[in-house]
Amino acid sequence: MKRFIITSLSILALVGTQLATPAAAQGRYARAPSDTVLVAPDGAILDYMPDGGDAAISRDGMGRRVFIDRWGNVIATEIRADSYGRAPGAYPPPPGRAQNGYDPYGQANAGGYQDYRQYRPGEPGDITGTIRRDASIERLPLNDDGMIMDDGAETGALEQPLPQPNLAPRSNKPVITPTNKPLAEIVALQVFLDRQGISPGVIDGHLGDNVNKAIAAWQDMTGETLDPNNSEDIMQRLTYEGGLPMVDYTITAADAAGPYVASIPDDYAHKAQLPAMSFTSVSEALAERFHMDEGFLKSLNPGADFTIPGTIIKVVNPGPAKTGEVVRVVADKAKKQVFAYGADGKLIAAYPATIGSSDTPSPTGTHTVQRIALNPGYTYNPKINFKQGNNDKILQIPPGPNGPVGTVWIALSKPTYGIHGTPEPSKIGKTNSHGCIRLTNWDATELAKMVKPGTVVEFVD
């Protein structure tokens, strides 16, 4: 076992130099002149041209035409047929992923490889804790008081909220401060915490406060002591729970197709004009799928063209989303961290968070979850929300991961406040919010699937 761990660490130490070779991967896709094809969000090729009366045409960040229906849903993106490569689902596993039936996400696979067809941009499935392809997605806008509109449903607090368990006591175990470590070992530590449901935020190869807070929360959850400087111990734990912290990934045609938008403007009035608050690039979409900082993803794959299907890149190997029934959520303003507890009072998950500011403080006391919306639109009302730029009118901002509340809105019983995602995951725990609880999109989605109306949310100082 020790020899295996040492070998694994040696492999990790070479991550910075043994990078993907995009030229070789891209060589299979000659750019000969060819017709275009229309690729649906699920990777299928349309065999018809959307009628002009039923679809509007927009442009994404690469100048490609995007066909959008009257409800704002993307029908298809037009891309070069030669860049599309193979048919959806026809991608073989990259070298090294089919060894002994190993699945890079920690699941044995009868065919010896991962079925890439289950991963689509913005919908990678349960592996990363984000929205599954077969999940029913509620695209619910926020109304004037900041709550989710739900066909006239009651917005008042539940008459009989769930019982409030006693919080598990915080342990007194000292947190061992990580020393200067090689990048690969830091990534291994971050991936381990992420797989445990104790989020370190974005995985970026940097030690910081979010990592230290995650270590403390893990010790509270398990009662064990974690030495972040013991790389052999970390690697052994990873071996038993999902395998290596980094793996190869082959960019698919659906990844490259998007849809994407050219850029996300700062002004809310300009945001309201976009067809959707989509990702702006393949690298941004993949970084979020694998819980990574986009700059870190690019640094691991210098020279890689993320827009070419077949390109093999290095990515982080996160674990499946945490599951369970959360009956109490504690938002700790001082720690800038959110803790999710089960009915037995035990800690289920913890997340770094951005909670309020001096100008727009978060609530105090105890509240409850009112309702939950995945991929919500956002209604900006300057009379009851914060003032953004020179905007003095109500604006309807479309759904998308780059929207003001990201991919999730968990409305609280205190009007206009909620727990939500963010378009800037790298800033979680480092900046202020407009009074709400802001998490990364993947953490917010994981939490949303464990709470329900009536779940207690307590703000502590």
Automatic annotation (TrEMBL):
It comes from the Bacteria. Keywords: Acyltransferase, Cell shape, Cell wall biogenesis/degradation, Peptidoglycan synthesis, Signal, Transferase. Residues 327-460 form the L,D-TPase catalytic domain. InterPro entries: LD-transpeptidase, LD_TPept_cat_dom, PGBD-like_sf, Transpep_catalytic_dom. The keyword Calcium does not apply. One of its GO terms (molecular function) is acyltransferase activity. The keyword Cell wall biogenesis/degradation applies. Pathway: Cell wall biogenesis; peptidoglycan biosynthesis. The active site is at residues 420, 436. It is an enzyme of class 2 (transferase). It holds the Pfam family YkuD. Residues 1-25 form the signal peptide. Its EC number is 2.3.2.-. Belongs to the YkuD family. This is L,D-transpeptidase.
